[in-house]
Every structure is written in structure tokens, then in C-alpha cells.
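To fix ideas, we quote verbatim one protein's residues and C-alpha cells.
>
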Amino acid sequence: MSNLTIRNAEPTDLDRITEIYADAVTHGTASYELEPPSRDEMGARYESLQAGGFPYLVAIDSDGAILGYAYAGAFRPRQAYRFIVEDSVYVAPEAKGQGVGRQLMERLIEATRALGFRQIVAVIGDGHPESASVKLHEKLGFSHSGRLVGSGYKHERWLDTVFMQLELNGGASLPPDPVSWPERKFRQG
């Protein structure tokens, strides 16, 4: 889809973001949540990511409709993980297969790189080899880094979780950049 605008998410986008995620939770296997979170919960999650300085993006079509969203957040809370983020991307049902997820992920990777992070990890629910999410991450240069067999149970079946990883900014081959966002934030804390 060539007429998309990718921009930073705003609080006014949260109703639509909540709808998109509710569909993914209810009908899909990408998320292991079993019940869609409320708008208030989605707002709290958004605020937490914003407070942490993480990128949170939306894709908007030429009519102003939000077709998807993506964000990066802390992979784990321990401080030694500060240079690695986990990505999330969700696309509205009517926009799947049109390149929305790819455009969101390309911009998310750019934003994450610009902040100085060294790794992006994708934790993909129902990560079978033909999964749209697995295929998308492969196209974007992510490599497979692990599988948890039968780690989730949803829609009456066992699901594997796949881990994929993308190295940024020299990855582990260089020492931490003291002016990167994760290092500055760590030094302030």
C-alpha cells in the first residue's frame, strides 16, 4: 500500500488501536492473551512505553483511517537488557496482506536504530514457518534464534513461540555507545 502515512501514535489513536488488538486477541494467535484488554489497559500500556521513550507508530491511509500499529518496548526489565527491545506489530483485518506491517516495521527498525539500541527481538506466537509474522521478519533481515515448542495453548491447540533477532548498530561487536538512548537513560536512573 503506497499511500500510507506512518507517524507517532497519539492518545487519540487508542480507541482504534484497542479495536485492532482486540481482533488479534479474539481471532488470532500472535498474542497469547485470551481476553482483549480494555481501552484503559491499552492506554496504560501506551503511557508506559511513551514514558520509557520507546517508539510507538501508527499507519494511516489517505482517508485518515488507522490500519495498523507497531511499537518497541523493553525485552526484559533487568538493566543488562537495556540495549535490546522487543517489537510488536498488528494490522487491521481489512488491511492484512497489503504491506502495512512491512512499512510499520521498516519505520520501527529505523526509529529503534536511531535511539541506539543494539538488538530487536521478535517473540512470535504461533510461529510456524509459514506464519505471516515469521515471513515478514525474515524479509526484514531477522534471523531465527529459538523456538519454545508447545508454549502456548489458544483456540484449542498448542502453539510454538518463535524468537527472531535483528542486530543493529554493530550489535554485540562494539561497546555501548555512551550517547545512545538506552545508555543515557541507564546513567540517569
